[in-house]
Amino acid sequence: MHYWKSKLLLSVSQDQSPVSFPLIVHSSVHNGTSSCSVQKLSRIRLLIAMLKCQTGNSDSNVNSIFYELWSRNGFCGEALSVYKQMVYKGIRPDEFTYPSVLKACGERFDLGFGREVHRSIDASCLQWSLFVQNALVSMYVKCGEVDVARNLFEKMSERDVVSWNSMICGYASKGMWEEAFELFERMRMGNFAFNIVIWNIIAGGCLQTGDYKGALELISQIRSYAAHLDSVTLVIGLGACPRIGLFKLGKELHGFAVRNGCDGVQTVRNSLITMYSRFKDLRHAYVLFRMTEAKSLVTWNSMIAGYTLWDRSEEASFIFREMLLSGVEPNYVTIASILPLYARVANLQHGKEFHCYLTRHRGFKDYLLLWNALVDMYSKSGKISEAQRVFDSMTARDEVSYTSLIAGYGMQGEGQSALKLFEEMNRCGIKPDQITMVAVISACSHSGLVSQGQVLFEKMLTFYGITPRVEHFACMVDLFGRAGLLRKAEEIITRMPYRPSPAIWATLLGACRIHGNTEIGEWAAEKLLEMRPENSGYYVLIANMYAAAGCWSKLAMVRTFMRDLGVRKAPGYAWIDVGSGFCPCSVGDRSNPHAEEIYLLLDGLAKLMKDAGYVPSEDLVLADVDFEEYIEQEN
After folding, report:
1. In angstroms, rounded to a whole number, what is the distance separating the alpha carbons of residues 390 and 210?
2. What pLDDT was estimated at residue 269?
3. Which of 275, 333, 392, 404 could pair covalently with 376 via S-S, beta carbons 3.0-4.6 A apart?
4. What percent of the chain is helix, strand and coil (3-state, nearest 5)?
5. What's residue 526's pLDDT?
6. Model-level pTM?
7. Parent domain of 261
8. If DSSP codes are grouped into helix, strand and coil, which group holds residue 252?
9. Pfam families this protein is in (predicted)?
């Protein structure tokens, strides 16, 4: 067919015309760099006019050239219009005309017209060629009718690579990966030649469905089928490696990209930045980021996301400011990655900056996740009135909005306000989830609202349809423990359908120490020791309880446990905002450049605590005091 067309076009080009005919064909069909669609359209029209002068209007083979020119150059509307005129004049389409018309229907997503063409093919006496059948399958796939396409596909007496590609791509575009994988396996069994596109589609499907190992196995098989890895393959592989901890393989893919000149491709470079970031190798990620001369929005987002993943708020803020100065405007992904970080680390200063940015740029008004992050940030920073203001200004709210504010009120000990919000949430028809119930019961616990918290817990399954989890039972232990109802806390633990976590035993143990219940405290301590937790804080808690009870032998046993298990008390650090950023400070650390200011502030806080009547407990084993030394001092 292509030979016939070329011969016809070349024969026409022998006409002594002022226009170079081969040049028109080349420009119209093959030139993908034309800057003006109007010029391209006029050239095609000139070509058609000249063909008509040479061959007449009735040759359907010539008409098929017209359709291919229209559809290949993006003028699908023109192709369909010419087809309608052709049918109106009684010119019968042939097996070369139909595929081009069907292609135009697919490009325009014109399912109705595509069905008309399908009916026309059925009504004609044409023998269905593989070319026509592939065009029909492709048209239905592009119009979203994959079931119709699959029906036609299964009826085909023979299939080629194009047939399989169309169906697999169709299922992939709809996210129907199970069907795509099934066809891929059938294609493999049929010994068809694979191209890199199919490999990439299936490997990408594995990545999207969470089969990261399967994606990497497919990539390793590509080479055995003599297919060359391209930039898309590398992006898929680099995306899969961090998911299953294969850092070495990720670096090997980086090496392959460098050797084959793919590391400069922007999508590959962005994926490399993301891959190194997820493995916490932020130094390499930053080097790659700096090596990228023309940074796209995705490049900036990748670097910012890397820093936010590991709670590096200062670096993330620096990159964000640099991004703005370079003239690149952030999008929803940028803000959505960085703002929750400020909520997690309660970085009020930077959070306020983003609040102002969101207020000035109205394009972010409808992104609920961003405003929820603001509410969460203000709540965790203790600025509950600011959180309430943001909450009130929101045009839409969901369970996350309410949960963040409820948790904020709970942390401030304002349980009644948290309960009112919870009631408002129910009135608005917003169903609470597992996290909401943790927040509201915790709010009751911090405010001493025992009966209200108990009622909410009992209604979880019967009224809200939420099955209590370990964290909900932990909240109830804390609720009863804070109120001194230690027998009820004990009863919750013994009746819960889950194995108590170390945190639950530690909660009960802390309550027993506060309320002086040695009996239940020793029971909780024994249970906690049986679990041999790695958290050194639990052992300090047990030691404090034994010290308060004067059980020196058991206190020594705790020390032995820690030594045998290799557990060491990790030094505590505080991150203090010194204006220009956050500065880490540990107990007794005088090497800090801001030590003088920090200790001056701490001394002031200690004086305020003393003036308020706070008296430190004298029965605690301090973290930095050796247990044997403490026992000897007591004896």
Report:
1. 36
2. 95
3. 404
4. 70, 0, 25
5. 85
6. 0.66
7. 208-294
8. helix
9. E_motif, PPR, PPR_2
